Structure formats: C-alpha cells, structure tokens
Amino acid sequence: MMMIIFSAGGVDSVDSRQPTATTNMHPVPEPTAQPPTQPVRDDASISTSQPHVMIDAPAHHFSISIDLRSIKNVETTTNLNIYLRYLYPFFGSVSPILTHPPIEVRRHTEVLLPHSYCSFNLAATVQQLQETLLRVPLLVEVWHRDRMTKDQLLGVARVPLAGVLRAEKARIATPSSGGAEGTRQIHSERVTVETASDGQPTRLAEMHVVLGLEDYGPIRAQQVLMGSEMTSSSSMAPPPQHRRAPPPGPPPAQQAPPPDPRETAEYKAALELEMWKEQHVRDFENQLKEKELQHLKSLTEEWKRKDREREALIEKKLKEHTHLETQLRSAFADIEKRERQLAANEAEVMRLRGDMQREQERQMTEMREVSRRIKEDHIAQMEIEKSKVRLLEEEKHHLSQLLSQAQAQLQEKDREFQAYKDQIATKPEVRLQSDLSLLKLEKVELERKLESVTKSKLHYKQQWGRALKELARLKQREQTEAKARLKREQQELEHMRLRYLAAEEKEVVKSERQQLDEIKGELNRLKQQELDKEQKAQHRQTSPAQPPAPQPQDHKENVQPPGVGTMDPGVEAHVARLIEERDTLLRTGVYTHQDRIISELDRQIRESIARGQAV
C-alpha cells in the first residue's frame, strides 16, 4: 500500500504505514499536484521491463491534526516549566513530538501552549483507521524542565481519538485530486492529566485538546516506474523521414561546394557534450532508483521488525493484564469479605455501645437518687448541728451575762469594802472586827463565785472545742455512713435482682407444681369414680333388691370440725416464698428484724397464713 505525494521535484513514493509528519509542530501545507519530470503513460501505451509498485484502490488519503491548546488547574505548590510530549507510532513518527519552549505554569491558572499543533498525512483504509483510533488512545506526557536537575515526568493524559470519528463532517475541496471534495471532522474536548501516587491515580491538571481528521478520498491506482528507459509502441515524435534527393546537376564551374556543418569541430564538441550529459543523467537516475529500492526494502524490513516487536509486546501486556486482573479479583474478594466482617463488627460495637449507654444511664440514675438521699440526710444532720450550735451560743451568751453580773457585783463589793475601810476609822474596834469578819466572809464567797465563773468559762471553752470536734466527727461519720448506705443499696439492688430472678423461677415451679397437683387430683377423682362404679356394680350383683345402706362412718370421717380448715396450696406457696425472701434478706447481714422491709414481710406472712386457715 503506497501513498503518492507530489512535489516540485517529481513523484515521491512513501510507505503508507510510515507517513510523513511535521515534527516542528507547524502546520503542513496541502500537497499540490504538479506534472512529473517524465510522462506517465496509460497501461495500454506503456511497455517496460522495470519493476512497478501498485497502490491499492480502497486506501484513502487522510490528514490527522492534533492541537494541544491549553492546560489549566495544575495542582502544584510552586511554579512549573511545563512542556508536553507524545508519540503515536501509527502516524509514522519515529521521534516523539514535543511542545517548545517550556512554559511557566502557576497554580489554578490556564496557559496556552506554544507550537502545539502538528498534522500527519497517511494512507490507510477506513476500517484500519477506525479500528486503530478506537483501540489505541493517545498518551500525552506532561514534563517539568529544571535547569539544575533532569526533566521530571509529572503525569499522563489519555486522549481518546475515537471522538473525532463521531464529529460532524464538513465538505472541503481537495485541490490535489482535481477538484474532488473531501470531508473534515473537528472534535474538541478537555481531558484530565493524572499522576499515579501510592498506586492510586490522582488528578493533576486539565488539558484542552482539538483533534482534526480530513479525508481526501480514495487514492487512484497508479504506477511508479523504477527504471529510466522505456519503449513505447506509439512514438512520442514522428520518425525521421529520409527524402530522396534529386540527382545533382552538373556543378557550375565557378561555384565551390558549401562545407557540411556536421563536419565542423564546434558541432562535434557540442554533440559529444550532449551525449556525455545524457549518459551521466541516465547513470544518476539509475543510482537514484537503486537507492530508492534499497530504502524501500530497508523500510519494509524495519516495519516488519517493529510489527513483530509490537505483537510480542502486546502479547506480553495481555498476559500481564490477565495476571493483574486475577490479582485484582482476589483482592476485591478479600476486600468484600473484610467489609462484611467490618460491618458485622460495627453492628456488634453499636449494640454493645447501646447496652453500655443504657447501663450507664441506669447507674447514673441510681447514683443521682443515692446522691439526693445523701444530700437530704446531710442537710438534716446539718440542721441538727446548727441547732446545737445555736444552743451553745445561747448558753455562752448566758454565761457571759453571769460573768458580767459577777464582775459588777465584785466591783460593787470593792466599793463597799472601800467605804467600809473609810468607816473603820470612825467606828469602834469591836464593830470594826465584826464588820471585818463579815467582809472576809463576803470576800471568800465572792472569790468562790469568781472561781466558779472562771471554771464555768473554761468549761464552756472546752465544750465549744468538743462541739467542734464532734461536728467534724459527725461530718466524717455521715460521709462514711453515706458510702456504706450507697454500697448497701447497691447490694440491696443486686439482691432484689437475684430475688426477682428466683421469684420468677419459683413462679414457674409453682405453676408447674399446680398443674401437677391438678393432674394428680383429676387422676384421683377419676380413680375414685371408677372404684365407686365397680363397688356399685358388685353391690347390685350381690343384693339387687336391697337399698344401699348408709355409711355414717365415712361421712363422719370426711366432716371436719367447724373452725378448722385446710390451707390452699397457692397460699402455702406464697407464704413459703415470703419466708424465703425474709430469710435471704436476714442472711445478707444488712437487715435486722427491726427494719421496715422485714416487718412488712412478717406482716404479709401472718396475713397469708390467716387467710389460708380461714379458707
């Protein structure tokens, strides 16, 4: 399969799988049709022994253009010098296509890429082109160039080329095909540049790509002559005609014959030069043809080698893909299993959390109730202590008043004693002696009162200190009693729970026992009825004419004296349960016979026994 590109120098034949590309990233001008240097004949008018290369009729002349317009929203913390690089072997480009120069990109900005347009001309069938564009995407690499280090690959964008096949077709003129019309399809899209970090693809940037596809129509079957000589059945120029010259007449006697121009030296030199020139042109053309054949052969071999390498690489990639798919499936199964286990664990954790929360709320409610009770008891105890303190304060105030009165009396007595001293000097000695004795007695009495007041004051101080110590001891004892009461209430709650469970079990046992008693009673009743029937039948057989004799003895045995009754089994079980609960509470050591709950149980036991005996 060949593609013919007409140029000013003649006809160039290029392999369709190695198309020409403008690698400098500039638009390529449309090929123009110019006449070849040698005429090309029809098949009927050309006969040659040189080799020919044929072009298949179904092949089309395509032109594919790729324009990497811009890049934006680059996820980076620093400025980057970015250039793009891609390679698509189907387009026949051996070297990668690069945008130049690198352009500086900042974060969250959009920049236009310079020299980013490139077009490729190739010849291929429509089916081959569609299959390749649908199957193989274009991988565009984003590189960062740094003066101090090597170029760094930032990410890769996968550009699907199938979108241009679905674009709307527009008619265009193809000057190279003699005024025929072709089609043009333009597709624009934005693709995501991704980078692989920790095995997970991460978005790096967004790139705007414009794809173009031009179809110039099928290529006509032509022949390219590889030789330089050809023979034609119909001559391009008429053959030389040899005219018969008339017989020469007798030459005139006076005129000399003109010299032949072909015999001149100039003519011979020009003829040799032209012959030498034609020979060298033929040799040069032969060398060009040989080189062309060699290049075509080397290109064909190179293409076959690359095709084999590509097939081997594809087979290897398929095996790797299968292996990775197997690993991915197993990993996915493990992940699903772990997710199910995690969901079960989360449900169990939520259930346990709910149970713990309910238990915590219950305990908090109990603690608040206990705290409230302790607080109320403490407040009551504080009121009692405050009343005691008020009494002590009143006693202190009373003693202070007594002390003040004693001091006032002492001062009064001192004044009287001083007045008495003054009177002594004027009174007789005997009276003075008697007055002195009286005063001594009063002094002793006053000293005794003063000592008693001092002792009472000291005693009050001691009582005040003891009251403070007693208050501290009462506070400590109240705290200890509160803790013990809290512990006792917790034990009581636990015993009540155990008692409730035991009561439920006893109720079940009691109900089963009642059912058994009812069944036994029913069986006894049925047995008694059967025995009565048998006795009646025997009695009828022995004495059918005699009436049955009364049985006063049996009736006497069944009749109980008034006031004496049997206890109901249900009441008896209830009494047994109450007694067992009372004994259980007494065995704990927390309760005594004076506690209210024990007294209440005793009362219920007595009432139940009384009701059972009454029945």
Series of secondary-structure elements, N-terminal to C-terminal:
EEEEEEEEEEEHEEEEEEEHHHHH
Shape: elongated
Based on CA atoms alone, the radius of gyration comes out at 66 Å
Number of domains: 4
Task: Look at the structure and give the mean pLDDT.
Answer: 77
The proportion of residues forming helix, as a percent range, comes to 40-55%
Ranges where pLDDT stays below 50 over 5 or more residues in a row are 1-57, 222-254, 544-565
The helix-and-strand class reads alpha+beta
CATH architecture heading of the largest domain: Sandwich
Oligomer kind: single chain
Biggest sheet statistics: 12 strands, antiparallel
Question: How far is it from the N-terminal to the C-terminal residue, by CA?
Answer: 122 Å
Classified in CATH, the superfamily of the largest domain is C2 domain
InterPro entries: C2_dom, C2_domain_sf, CEP120-like
Biased composition (Pro residues): 28-38, 246-259
Biased composition (Polar residues): 16-25
Region (Disordered): 14-47, 173-200, 228-263, 530-569
Q: Could you outline the blueprint of secondary structure elements for this entry?
A:
Layout lengths: L1 E6 L2 E6 L4 E2 L24 E2 L4 E3 L5 E13 L7 E7 L10 E2 L4 E3 L4 E3 L4 E8 L1 H10 L2 E7 L7 E8 L9 E6 L5 E18 L2 E19 L4 E3 L5 E2 L32 H160 L4 H114 L9 H7 L10 H19 L8 H19 L1
Antiparallel strand pairs: 1-2, 3-11, 4-18, 5-17, 6-10, 6-11, 6-16, 7-8, 7-9, 7-12, 12-13, 13-15, 14-15, 15-16
Helix pairs in contact: 2-3, 3-5, 5-6
